[in-house]
Design brief:
Order of helices and strands: EEHHEEEHEEHEEHHHEEEHHEEH
Strand content: 25-35%
Structural class: alpha+beta
Oligomer: single chain
Radius of gyration: 22 Å
Distance between the termini: 28 Å
């Protein structure tokens, strides 16, 4: 597998970890738009982050990371389902993107929203300012400030591969003493901070963990695959038309010359609806007999 997450556990402590590697799915996302290199790298880091976060949650549904700013990248958005299907998009002003630009350059005054939308149960949303130098720092700060389990991120992407590592403290079990738990957490995260971008992007998981934690007892679990998949559909596009109401939908038909085309911004697929399709929708016939759908 070129795209997968892989969990690991420190057997003698109350700390777990997760590694992610994205190649094909990252390439699918980048193929949809001509992203400048700094934007492609930041989008790759967010894809890796969302994939790591899904592994920390036990739910059926969708996790969404969305960042907004007043800068060259006003919007960055990634979705990852509990089935480990990812998609992502960035909005950017190419004239404002400079070579080598980082998070602070691209997204000043930025805010990151993390949304967990389960199929059943209550929707959860958390917000953090993008005040760190990197996305990994901002996500780590979010967990520090949200009174959740201490969690640290390391993220890198180079336009070809997106990789990430996460460490998360678990509820007290093996280490009951608070000072011992804190000392162990600091020890493991300090070693994690020695990880370079070249190592994260270039080493396989076993080698990487041995290099960082060869003095610890680390158990590496089986990998779980990730893939790019867009959740758009003709039915969803039809529902968007229906939500406008019959009068507005017919007005839109007139304004567009008799055919309404709805583009998916994530995958560039196009869904076309002519007058007969719209009439069928509002007669309760659904969208089961489509007009030609173009890619």
């Amino acid at each position: 597998m070129s795209d997968f997450t892989q969990r690991f556990l420190f057997d003698d402590t109350d700390v777990r970890g997760e590694l992610v590697s994205l190649g094909e799915s990252y390439a699918h996302v980048l193929a949809k738009h001509p992203y400048p290199e700094p934007v492609a790298q930041l989008l790759g880091e967010m894809l890796a982050a969302a994939s790591l976060l899904v592994g920390t949650l036990k739910f059926d549904g969708l996790l969404v990371l969305q960042a907004r700013s007043s800068g060259a990248v006003p919007l960055l958005m990634v979705e990852c389902s509990s089935n480990r299907e990812v998609r992502g998009i960035a909005r950017y002003d190419a004239d404002q993107v400079t070579p080598g630009a980082g998070l602070r350059d691209l997204m000043p005054e930025g805010v990151l929203t993390l949304t967990v939308d389960p199929e059943q149960g209550q929707r959860y949303q958390g917000i953090v300012a993008l005040e760190g130098a990197t996305l990994a720092e901002c996500l780590s700060a979010y967990f520090d400030n949200s009174q959740q389990l201490p969690t640290r991120f390391w993220l890198n992407a180079d336009g070809r591969n997106a990789r990430g590592m996460l460490l998360q403290a678990l509820p007290a079990d093996r280490l009951k003493d608070a000072e011992a738990r804190e000392a162990n957490w600091q020890h493991l995260t300090t070693l994690g901070d020695t990880l370079t971008a070249e190592e994260l992007l270039g080493l396989d998981n076993e080698t990487l963990l041995h290099r960082l934690y060869h003095e610890e007892t680390v158990r590496l679990f089986d990998p779980q695959s990730i893939q790019f998949r867009c959740s758009c559909s003709r039915e969803r596009s039809a529902n968007a038309l229906v939500s406008l109401g019959k009068d507005d939908a017919e007005t839109l038909l007139e304004e567009t010359g008799g055919t309404v085309v709805i583009d998916c911004q994530f995958c560039n697929q196009r869904y076309s609806f002519d007058a007969a399709d719209v009439a069928q929708l509002f007669a309760g016939g659904g969208s089961t007999v489509p007009s030609e759908t173009r890619h």
